Amino acid sequence: MAMNPKVDAYVRRQGKWRDAFEKLRALLIDSVLVEDMKWGHPCYTLDDKNVVLMHGFKEYCALLFHKGALMKDPKRILIQQTANVQSARQIRFTSAADVTAQAKTLKVYVREAIRVERSGAKVVRKETKDFAMPAELQKRLGADPRLKAAFAALTPGRQRGYILYLAGAKQATTRAARVEKCVPRILAGLGLND
After folding, report:
1. Do the domain assignments include residue 85?
2. Which of 107, 118, 138, 155 has its C-alpha lying 20 to 30 A from 21's C-alpha?
3. Do residue 12 and residue 105 come from a single domain?
4. What is the DSSP letter of 79?
5. Which of 23, 115, 29, 105 lies closest to 68 in space, CA to CA?
6. pLDDT at 128
7. What is the mean pLDDT of residues 136-159?
């Protein structure tokens, strides 16, 4: 595989995770995957489909397998980031030595991710109606027919974005305040991050 100069620049800019990224990159380049940059991170594709992404956080760096939920996981090392992540799974590392210690296993998991992608398998995702709508949003939609119509007109992804954002608040008062803050965006037909 050819090395992408954008990924070269990305890896050079990394501080804490640079050595780990170099080792992960070497493993990924030694496959049929194509190296690219997407969402500001190195992404490895097969036939223009995303297979694995390399990214770093404060406490760990990770390989994110886009269809990880469909992969075999004999070592039980695939991690679902949050309860709302439906498809992707991570393998996390805390050092370059951690990557080296797992190198053989990682090659097996990369081959498994490629097998899943080649199979054409798709992750069955929950529909928007399957997510629990916060009571504060339900109440507000019930009280304002114009808002209810505007929310219904949003794409399912935009609806899920609002539902998950609002449900993420622990306290009812925070959820209610978030609902009020979102009302103008919903009425304008905008998603949470538009």
Report:
1. yes
2. 118
3. yes
4. B
5. 115
6. 84
7. 95
- Report the C-alpha gap between 103 and 120 in whole angstroms: 26
* Cβ neighbours of residue 3 closer than 8 Å, sequence gap 6 or more: 25, 29, 35
Q: Which amino acid is at 15?
A: G
DSSP structure class, residue 134: P
Q: Is the pLDDT of residue 178 over 70?
A: yes
Q: Spell out the residues 6+ positions from residue 107 whose beta carbon is closer than 8 angstroms to its own.
A: 27, 30
3-state SS assignment for residue 101: helix
pLDDT of residue 1: 62
139 and 51 part of one domain: no
Predicted TM-score (pTM) of the model is: 0.76
Single-letter code of the amino acid located at 115 = R
Distance CA 16, CA 9 (A): 15
Return d(Cα 168, Cα 87) in angstroms, integer.
Answer: 20
Does the structure show a pLDDT above 90 at 131? Answer: no
pLDDT at 193 over 90: no
Alpha helical stretches, state H, 41-171 = 96-101, 103-119, 135-143, 145-153, 156-167
What is the rounded distance in angstroms from the CA atom of residue 114 to the CA atom of residue 94? Answer: 25
Q: How many CB atoms lie within 10 A of CB 77?
A: 14
**9 and 100 share a domain?**
yes
Two structure tokens written together for 63? 């390989």
User: Phi and psi for 44 in degrees, rounded to 5?
Assistant: -115, 125
Domain hosting 173: range is: 128-187
